[in-house]
Write a structure and sequence with these properties.
heterodimer; A: alpha/beta; Rossmann fold; 11 helices; globular; B: mainly alpha; MetI-like fold; 71% helix; MetI-like (chain B)
């Protein structure tokens, strides 16, 4: 496993505590473009925000965020409400494009092809086809369980019933839901419990093999038992897919993530390996938040 | 004054409950006024026209002798005109509503359109009749036909359908939309697979409200030249040979139920008044039947749609 994150050990000449800088990630990701690894002791980078700023109209919600997302690892975004963590997450699949008046600056690059997801020339639909998203409130479509999972495949033009059947089964197994729904695939998705619905939404994403999965506070509408099952699932999914998760629950971040980014007022305050960040944060603001003295 | 002791609290509760009861009574009376008025009218028509409600009444053309007159041409005309109305207004209204909600970006232009659409719903129906007389009957050369009448009434209920469509679409939670977009769906795929199916119950409600209004409309249909005395049927929409449909009926002259009623009520003989009552009774039944169908469809569509 990973020892520590290089950028946390960067000593800034001005004596400030280490903060991720453009140089650290951009350098890392461009290095990755050549040899697939950023630094000897970190996993390959799957995606990276580079000097990414975001504006809701005149209001700047994100200020020059630079953040790596490591392949097949779980990166958690934490911070108090309104810190911009969901905004950052939703930028990764261009959800902000659905609403007028939003503006991106900088880049979020997806590797290995180094595509800037925010480039106006890049179709947001292409981005969303590569990056899946699970929402705060389970949002299955008012259709059958089967149709929910098959939908992503259908809009990609898959018509073969046998292919759909196989992929639906595979996705439901991947989301640890198959055993519970195998005998009632044609029942409406709303017949499922909240936790099952959320796993259905995860299966819906998995069916199309996304490169990155975004989770936007996926358990905030669920009870503790359903939450545990989702966390367990995330733990299994990290083997197959890169995960970026927003959570307001610090224990959850500690439990499920390999890396944690602490955000405050639209800025990335600290990024590091979760274990280290929770035990020994570099920045005092992070420590205050993690220890519950604020937020 | 905030009560200090238990008896004070109880007194306040009693007073509040009394107000509750007063409103409940008032609301119930208000409800009764509406329901009883309708029932009284309906029953009065039913009793007055009861004797005339024989099978012959439905299968006979109007006649100078009240006892032999029937509503065959009227109810067939109403059904065919409603068919044209539905076929023209539903796709146009739904498409316009979907466009305004899902496609159009908000600007002063869409605001202007929105205000206009809402206002159109309040335009007196006779104005639609005059418009249709100029446009459909003369400019397009459709003549005084079922097609002209259906399109006129379609235009009349278009705003209702648009508004109902928009309301129904707005009631779809945003996170359902986002879920579909997040999978990589295009706007058209989201519209076709989600927005339209999920808003169908609401749209249908609007369509039926519109149709119930249209089926009772007299003024615009008279304006475009519906006949009041008709002793023939339009050609059957079902043809004898392939492709088994026939559109000749669209060009046919016609009458509709309310016009037939109007014609009979304007006659002095008591027997024709009876006919009018019977026709009114049938017209109300037709409206109720449409409502029943929409409730049934809505129930079946809504079963699986929960947010």
């Amino acid at each position: 496993m990973v020892g520590h994150i290089a950028m946390r050990s960067i000593d800034r000449p001005d004596g400030q505590a280490a903060r991720p800088t453009l140089g650290s990630v951009a350098g890392a990701s461009s290095a990755l473009a050549r040899d697939g690894r950023s630094l000897p002791d970190t996993p390959p980078i799957k995606a990276a925000a580079e000097n990414f700023s975001f504006f809701y109209g005149q209001f700047q919600a994100l200020k020059s965020i630079t953040l790596p997302v490591y392949e097949k690892h779980v990166t958690a975004l934490i911070g108090p409400s309104g810190c911009g963590k969901s905004t950052l997450l939703r930028a990764c699949n261009r959800m902000h494009d659905l609403y007028p008046g939003n503006r991106y600056e900088g880049a979020i690059r997806l590797l290995p092809d180094n595509t800037n997801l925010l480039d106006p020339a890049v179709d947001p639909i292409e981005v969303r086809m590569r990056i899946g998203m699970v929402f705060q409130k389970p949002n299955p479509f008012p259709k059958s369980i089967y149709e929910n999972v098959a939908y992503g495949l259908r809009i990609r033009g898959e018509k073969s019933r046998s292919v759909l059947d196989d992929r639906v089964e595979e996705a439901l197994k991947g989301a640890a839901l198959w055993a519970e729904v195998a005998h009632r695939l044609n029942e409406p998705a709303f017949a499922l419990s909240g936790g099952q619905q959320q796993r259905l939404c995860i299966a819906r994403c998995l069916a199309t093999d996304p490169e990155v999965l975004l989770f936007d506070e996926p358990t905030s509408a669920l009870d503790p038992i359903a939450t545990a099952s989702i966390e367990e699932l995330i733990d299994q999914l990290r083997q197959k897919v890169t995960i970026l998760i927003v959570t307001h629950n610090m224990q959850q971040a500690a439990r499920v993530s390999d890396f944690t980014a602490y955000m405050y007022l639209g800025e990335l305050i600290e990024f590091g390996e979760t274990r280290q960040m929770f035990v020994n944060p570099v920045r005092p603001e992070t420590e205050d938040y993690i220890t519950g003295r604020f937020g | 004054m905030i009560p200090a002791d238990l008896s004070g609290i109880q007194r306040i509760i009693r007073r509040n409950k009394r107000r509750d009861l007063i409103f409940a009574i008032f609301g119930f009376v208000a409800l009764l006024i509406g329901v009883l008025t309708f029932l009284a009218l309906f029953l009065q028509m039913a009793f007055a026209g009861w004797e005339r409600l024989t099978p012959d009444f439905f299968t006979s053309f109007p006649s100078r002798r009240a006892g032999q007159a029937g509503i065959l041409s009227a109810w067939v005309g109403s059904v065919l005109v409603m068919l044209v109305t539905a076929v023209s207004a539903v796709p146009l209204g739904v498409a316009a509503g979907v466009y305004l909600e899902e496609y159009a970006t908000r600007s002063w232009v869409t605001d202007l359109i929105e205000i206009n659409v809402t206002n159109l719903a309040g335009v007196p129906s006779i104005v639609y009749g005059l418009l249709a007389l100029g446009v459909f009957v003369y400019a397009f050369g459709f003549g005084q036909s079922i097609l002209s009448a259906g399109l006129t009434l379609g235009l009349l209920i278009l705003p209702v359908v648009i508004v109902a469509t928009r309301e129904a679409i707005r009631s779809i939670p945003q996170h359902i939309r986002e879920g579909a977009y997040a999978l990589g769906a295009t706007r058209w795929q989201v519209t076709r697979d989600h927005i339209v199916p999920y808003s169908m119950p609401g749209i249908l409600t609007g369509v039926i409200i519109g149709m119930s209004r249209a089926i009772g409309e007299t003024a615009p249909v008279i304006t475009i030249g519906a006949l009041t005395f008709i002793a023939f049927l339009p050609e059957s929409p079902i043809g004898p040979e392939f492709p088994w449909v026939n559109f000749e009926w669209l060009k046919s002259g016609f009458t509709v139920m309310p016009i037939q009623m109007f014609n009979w009520t304007s006659r002095p003989e008591e027997a024709f008044q009876q006919n009018a009552a019977a026709a009114g009774f049938v017209l109300v039944l037709m409206t109720l039947a449409m409502n029943a169908i929409s409730i049934w469809i809505r129930y079946h569509l809504r079963k699986d749609i929960k947010w």
